[in-house]
Every structure is written in structure tokens, then in C-alpha cells.
Amino acid sequence: MTTLITGGTVVNATGRGAADVLIDGETVVALLTPGSTLLGTDLARSVDTVIDATGKYVIPGGIDAHTHMEMPFGGTFASDTFETGTRAAAWGGTTTIVDFVVQYPDQNPVEQFALWQDKAAGNCAIDYGFHQILSDVQDSSLHAMDELIAEGVTSFKLFMAYKGVFLSDDGQILRAMQKASGNGAMIMMHAENGSVIDTLVQQHLARGETSPYYHGISRPWQAEEEATHRAIMLADLTGAPLYIVHVSAKQAAEQIALARDRGQNVFGETCPQYLYLSLEEQLGAPGFEGAKWVCSTPLRSRAEGHQHQMWNSLRTNDLQLVSTDHCPFCMKDQKEMGIGDFSRIPNGIGSVEHRMDLLYQGVVTGEISLERWVEICCTTPARMFGMYGRKGVLAPGADADVVIYDPAGHTSIGLNKTHHMAMDYSAWEGFEIDGHVDTVLSRGQVVVDGGAFHGRAGHGRYVKRGLSQYLI
Ligand code: DUC
Ligand code: ZN
Ligand code: ZN
After folding, report:
1. Which one of 118, 125, 312, 317 has the minimum C-beta count within 10 Å?
2. For position 277, what pLDDT does the model report?
């Protein structure tokens, strides 16, 4: 099966140009001068399928390096399964996700990895890899890190918050980092000071301050900055590479920039919610409405300028990529568990379908270039998490994960349930997007085209990742 995508502008992180993309089976075999011939014959006549991309951008499939499909969390499960979540991702131009295997205390990480493989196998519409959450850093977990790396799980997330569930203390973090500095793993960090947050939560609840707004107030930027700084110091001490997830506070971004300026291997991601949404407008919505946007780290004050700083940091590469932290919960029966007590609202926002569109708005408004959009959403995630070459680039030899994006198109998000995530609301309802994901190919197969889904559960394959290509 051969496919030729003609007439479009191919955009990679390194540049753009008019080119036709020739695909053989699952793989890109050539980027060609438009109108190329094959032994004197028009190439378009020799292939099985021609896709006309005139006037459109042809980009590598998006990689969302931070999702939580069907995650057991907050007394319930994230509402997207691997099937519904990866289908929604495909609709939005994401062709690979990296999800998180969860180790709760006393669980064996390798057994948990097998469990998560079972959950995903046969259900995904697009390719998928795994990071491993470690909640119980002890000798056996440290040994498991080596085994998991051999299985393609090369990054390990630790938490400085959620005491009794996920939290690792500084000694445990130190030990995991010592291990990572030896075996090349990436340490991913949820950087918030859990003890400070737990105390503030109790104080607000005791004062009767129970609405979703206080979720944000009880997780102040100082708790994020402090934990980010502490994680950076521990990484410096051990020589481990460090990747700070879901950065929302400008002060945390500044800590990352300082560490990078000193020459440390410290990286950071932010998420669409921290670029667009705020404490005042969303978490502070009347009644219980703000629960829709309860996630951690929390939405930050617009008056304090955090959102603006996230864009600046992305532009200057102080932050390297954007993932969603996709962890959706319905309002009914899930978010509603926290009526009268914000600390019982399951933490998470669903965005896996909208990341490419939302970030493209940064191109429209001049925050980032077209190439930087591709770099942030596709190329850097591949390099950061050991998939580059196969993923994250349109070049001969790469998987034919391709998005045809129409800059003249338009996407209305959320209204009348236009999205495909398993949620009874949208955190992005009312967002009007300049641009549209027209066609999506996953390893050469058209999975979205003409406003219809053509993929299937089980097409997606496990991606056995290598070590981060950002490390020497
Ligand atoms: N933050 C969330 O909002 N949800 C899942 C886990 C996390 O760290
Ligand atoms: Zn987290
Ligand atoms: Zn997360």
C-alpha cells in the first residue's frame, strides 16, 4: 500500500517547504519535490492512494507525553479508557501517547507494568508507550527500574505531594535519582510541597472555605517553586536528569531556567490549561462549576502573569514541550464527590484531543513559530523520551504518522459535545480555534479524514522507548 500526500507544506521542527510525502506501508520513504516522476511516470499515478494537501500543513503526528487513561485516582478512575482516549487523541492529531503505569505503595512496578500492558493491548487507536510512577521507593523498586528500562520504560515519575498515596520523601527521591544517574533513566517530578498543601487544605476546610476555588488557593505558587528548587538540588547532587511535569507557576519556570543556565540537565513541560485558563476565571466560577478545572498543579492567577510566562518560556526553550496531563473525570458522580469539600474533587482535566489545536493558536497570535509548534508538540517529546527518528519527524525511515492541518479551517470546541473524550463536559467549551485537523495517518493508515473516524481499537502498538536523546 503506497500513499502520496501532495501539494502541502511539510513542516518539521527544522524548517518548512513544499514537498510531497511518499509512504510505503507504515513508513515514510521519501520527501519529494512536488510533481516528481518515477522512471518518467507521474508518481501520483503509480501509488495506490493520493491525498491532496494543497494549502495545508503536513506535519509529524503529535506526541502527548503525559496522559492518564483509566487511571485509578481520587477514589475513582479517569473516565477515558485506552480505547476512548486514544480515539479522541487521534481526532485531535495526536498519534502517540505516553501514559503512566501506576505503582501504589506495596505494589511491584514490573507487575503493574504487565497490568497496564493488558489494559492497553488491543484497545488503542494510536501507538502508545509508558512511563512508570514510583510511589514506593525501596530496594525492589530500584531494581525494577533496570528491568523496566529493558522493556522500554525509561522514565520514572515521582511525587512530592499526595502524602500516603504517591508522595516520596527527599531520601526516597535521592535514592531513585542516584539509580537514574547510573542507568540513564529520566526522573519526572510532580513538584509541589505536599506537607504545606495538606496543612493549608485543612485550614481552609476548617474555616468553611470548601469551594473549588480553594483548591487553587491551598496549592500556592510558593509550594511549586520550593519543590521545583528542591528537586533540582537533589538532581544536581546525584547527577540525575530531571523533567518537571505540568509546570504552572512562573517562579517554577524560572527555577528551571536557572538550573539550565548552570548547565544542569533539567527540563520542563507545561500544559494547555496553564497557557489559557486561570484561577480567577475558571476555578473561581460560581457555585461548584470550578470543579471542572480542578487539577494539580492548579490553574494560576492571571493577574500574577503565570500564563504569559508559560508562553515566554516555551518560546525561549526554558520549557521544552507541552503535554496535556490528560486525566478526565465527569462532573456527574466523579467531580461531584467534592461538593462541600474541594479536597475530594478528583484532580484532572481532559485535553488530549485539543492540544495540537490549542498550541496552534500560539502560532496564530505570534507567540511561537510554526516550526516551534511542531517542535513543542511532536519532535521534542520524541527526543525527550527516546522515540525520535521513528516518531516526531517527517523524514525517510520514520513511521508514517502524519497530520494534515488546515490553517484556513476552524474548530469549535466543546459546544454541543463536539469532542470525543469520555466526559460529560469540556474544560474548553466555547474555545474557537483558527485551524483544523483534517486528516490523520497512524503508521500509514488513515485514522481520521473528512470529519469521520476510520481507525480501530487495536491498531495502536506499544512503543518500546530508548533512553532520552537529550542526554549524552
Ligand atoms: N495531577 C492531576 O491533575 N491529575 C493526575 C495527577 C496529577 O498529578
Ligand atoms: Zn502530577
Ligand atoms: Zn499527570
Report:
1. 118
2. 98
Torsion on CA atoms 175, 176, 180, 183, rounded to nearest 10: 80
**Residue of minimum CA distance from atom 8 in ligand 1:** 296
Domain at 61-384: CATH architecture = Alpha-Beta Barrel (3.20)
Interval between CA 73 and ligand 1 midpoint (Å)? 9
CA 434 / ligand 3 centre spacing (Å):
28
Q: How far apart are the first and last CA of the chain?
A: 38
Could you list which residues have their CB under 5 Å from ion ligand 3?
325
**At residue 178, does pLDDT exceed 90?**
yes
In degrees and rounded to multiples of 5, residue 202 shows phi and psi of -65, -40
To test the ligand 1 pocket, which listed residue (270, 296, 343) has its Cβ within 8 A of the most ligand atoms?
296
What φ, ψ does residue 338 adopt, rounded to 5°?
A: -100, 15
Beta strands per DSSP E along 390-444: 402-412, 432-442
Q: How far apart are CA 52 and CA 36, in angstroms?
A: 15
* Ligand 1 within 6 A of CB of 296: yes
Q: Is the CB of 347 under 6 A from ligand 1?
A: yes
The structural domains of the chain, with segments of one domain joined by +, span 2-59+392-453, 61-384
Please indicate, yes or no, whether the overall pTM of this predicted structure exceeds 0.85.
yes
**What are 298-319's pLDDT values in tens digits?**
999 999 999 999 999 999 999 9
Query: In 160-299, which ranges are E strands?
Result: 186-190, 242-244, 266-270
Res 416: pLDDT: 63
- 66 and 243 Cβ atoms separated by less than 8 Å: no
What superfamily would CATH give domain 2-59+392-453? Urease, subunit C, domain 1 (2.30.40.10)
Cell of 185: 533513566
Minimum-distance ligand 1 atom for the alpha carbon of 71: 5
Collapsing DSSP states into helix, strand and coil, what is residue 127?
strand
Q: Is 250 in the pocket of ligand 1 (CB under 6 A)?
A: no
Question: What are the tens digits of pLDDT across the range 388-420?
Answer: 999 999 999 999 999 999 999 999 997 666 899
CB of 265 sitting under 6 A from ligand 1: no
